[in-house]
Amino acid sequence: MTQTPELGLRVLNRTTLERQLLLNRSGMSAAQAVERLVAVQGQEIDAPYIGLWTRLASFTQDDLASLLYGRQVVRGSLLRGTQHLTLADDYVWIRPLVQVILSRTRQAAFGRLMRGVDVAELAELARGHLAGRTLTRPQIRDLLRERWPEVDPTALGWSAQAMLPVVHTPPNGIWGKGGPTPFTLAEEWLGRPLEPAPAVERLVARYLAAFGPASVMDVQMWSGLTRLRGVMEAMPGLRRYHDISGRVLYDLADAPLADADTPAPVRFLPWFDNLIVAFADRSRMMTAEQRKAVCVGAVVYPTFLVDGTVGGVWDLKDGVLTLEPFRALPDEVMGELAAEGARLMAFAGVGEGEIVWSSPGSSVTAP
């Protein structure tokens, strides 16, 4: 029997960082980077900008804004049913794959409140209201209440969003832009239909290219999909490894592994960055205790990486960048973090900001 090679944590860490463009800033365009990452977490408006800035050699806020206005990148509910930015070319096949997640989440959250409502009828009615125009969730909610006045309005609005492929149009998703969230039909915004029956293997392969090697549970954690073991075991050409605990890891056959001794510079990751939530077993990025501090309920705090793994959390508010290391850091590393922090503040338009070092506690507050 052929033995599968064992991969240690350092090899897994460096390989993932390489694929995530975090060992060396890439010369890719913003569109190429979004494609590489499959989908960029956009739950917090400014996060995708920082996530791309930290990975690319040359990136401005206008680079992503122009892609959103040009309809090359769209923002909508995708992986795990949460907000992501992805290429329009990828949205048309990823969105149908994750419909099962959105339907499941909607039922769990609002099923009891929606008793007596025909969900298919609601979707078609909402589609009619959205045809040829853009509406906010309150506007969709109020229109649907004309048909179901006795039903919880929040449940109606969120159900429409879950059952229909909709995207959020700019200025939503533009750096620093808040306010009401607009919705429009994805097919109208993109000028083309969604793919009717995309293969889930396509999503698995894209994940492995961006995050692998990884286990079945890792892919399921990242995507929100389930029952992928049979899919991955049957996929031709995948290479198998195992980690130090014996878990089977899969990877693309031609995907290289990074050297364990490859230097890893300090990097800042934004709120909800997918690298932090892309694995069921996150030991390649952080310890179990650090995970408790970084992933709290539905919140994933912004982190900084030291020697490739999570070294602490950070916050940028009112011109002050607060750095909270999880352990004492050498002066050299603190200097690297300060220099990188200054670059971050310059990117964010802070100018002459201030860097404050905090002891572990509660200096970072959820958005």
From TrEMBL:
InterPro entries: AlkZ-like. This is Winged helix DNA-binding domain-containing protein. It comes from Nonomuraea rubra.
